[in-house]
Amino acid sequence: MSVILDLNSDLGEGFGVWQLGDDMALLSIVTSANVACGFHGGDPTIMRRVCAEAISRDVSIGAHVGYRDLAGFGRRAMDIEPDRLADDVLYQLAALDGIARSEGGRVRYVKPHGALYNRTVTDPAQAGAVVAAVSAYDPSLPMLGLPGSQLLRQADEVGLKTVREAFADRGYQSDGSLAKRGSPGALVTDPTMVAKRCVKMATTGQVTAVDGGTVAVRARSLCVHGDTPGAVELARQVRTALQDAGVQLSTFS
């Protein structure tokens, strides 16, 4: 039986005159685009441009919702009351979906960003707030997240479709969590190495942890961060290596 994988990337994370990553190049490689919704990065003009290009290339649009933290790029831990967090997620999701619809498309799934993503792995209150917002807006939207996380567990409990994600360019701890940014092995940037580990994840469901151990990684979607150094070449080599290994690339949504 052939393996089917989605290849996603975080896009639209510039702001005003500041550009982060090569969105247009990555949209020619990935099958799903996690589009920043203005809170950790992105602005209405960028959101519209990325949505229009994604729709023209038949790339699925996902709402990449995060903490209201432009200065910290959404990577700073924040304590927000669950009700307020749910409102923030709902605001971002509705804004991106409105822009996507104006271009003839729509948001197809939701994925938290940065610190919110990491927090929803273990924090039931924060995970519940994200799930509540998505359920209130459109319960048909899939939730993309880390296998075994509170986020996917709670989403599954309320009937949302859940999609397990693995990371091409991030190091794993032996417990299956992501290595903290800034720690040894947290970021993997060598394209050849990344491509090999992606093929291993796709074909064996395993990845080598930063401590040398083996971690089980069964995922439907594989992420290449748009702000990783050399992201375009990295994503291109990952796509080529997966296809050469017989993996079919197709969006889950």
UniProtKB/TrEMBL annotation:
UniProt entry keywords in alphabetical sequence: ATP-binding, Hydrolase, Nucleotide-binding
First-tier enzyme category under EC: hydrolase
Gene Ontology BP annotations: carbohydrate metabolic process
Keyword Magnesium recorded: no
GO molecular function, one term: ATP binding
EC assignment: 3.5.2.9
The keyword Membrane is assigned to this record: no
Reactions catalysed: 5-oxo-L-proline + ATP + 2 H2O = L-glutamate + ADP + phosphate + H(+)
Highest taxon above the source species: Bacteria
Subunit structure as annotated in this protein's UniProt entry: Forms a complex composed of PxpA, PxpB and PxpC.
Function field: Catalyzes the cleavage of 5-oxoproline to form L-glutamate coupled to the hydrolysis of ATP to ADP and inorganic phosphate.
Family membership noted in the UniProt record: Belongs to the LamB/PxpA family.
Protein name: 5-oxoprolinase subunit A
